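Input/output pair, single chain:
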Amino acid sequence: MIRVGTCSWADESFVKAWYPKGVSSGEDRLRYYAEHFDVVEANSTYYRMPDEGTVARWSERVPDGFVMHVKAFGLMTRHPVKIEVLPADLHDSVEVDDHGRVDRPSEEVRAEVFRRFLAALEPLKAAGKLGGILMQFPPYIVPKPAAYDYLEWAREQLAGHEMLVEFRHKSWFEQSTETLSLLEQHGMTYVTVDAPQDVIPLIIARTGPDAYARLHGRNRSTWFKRTGSAADRFDYLYSPEELAEWAATLKELAAGGAENVYAMFNNNGRPEVVGPPANLLGETASEEVAQAPTNAAMLLDLLSR
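Output:
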């Protein structure tokens, strides 16, 4: 089965250019999203620990058969986090740097964060709607013994869950044979990354039952912009030709034995005005589109042919 979705359902571009007027509450937006796609990534959990009540409401708003992957909280993937986003009862157990961030907590604190994170996801898991836990590692995590040890430790913390591993430093892809072997050996799902090729090489592979791809766009001019936002970095609209290549790739992965093939669009830039002669949707007039859901719909159309 090939599933196509986006890496958020509440991005600003969705609100401005994809959801119809009247679809304004968080509840309405998730229900509307689930009418068009059968998979999504929850990414708010990267910035703040999930709450079980909120997760239960997410589960109630999507139909049976829907899959929600969940992005790991920043501290779980070695990102520093502001102390205020940690549970209050853990504050006395961590040290804070000059910027008010927790960067190197003890293994005990980090393990407790993993435990609470997974506990909050129980409503999704109980309903059969929980996909994988996306472990998106920062660019400063490179192939070396300390990183290998942490991957194995994190795998232990996520026992019973699918661990999706996304690397952001090109060295992991330059030694792709070793990287893929490591992930396969420890039961981790490799995340194929589509980004500017000189930033992250495109290595399409599968290390477990599922194949997983995240499409970040190919806007190299904004990728390293220090003063830019995520909307700048991922500001990209895939062309029909680029999506046709991806459709063929996804079909090959499915034919190759993958149980599930996921293509998740993270090109959540600003709404883009598309008009003749470049209108990708076949319209005759210019219109503003949200890039990720627009490209996801286009890819689904290509896959159905």
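The chain has one domain: 2-303. The mean pLDDT is 92.
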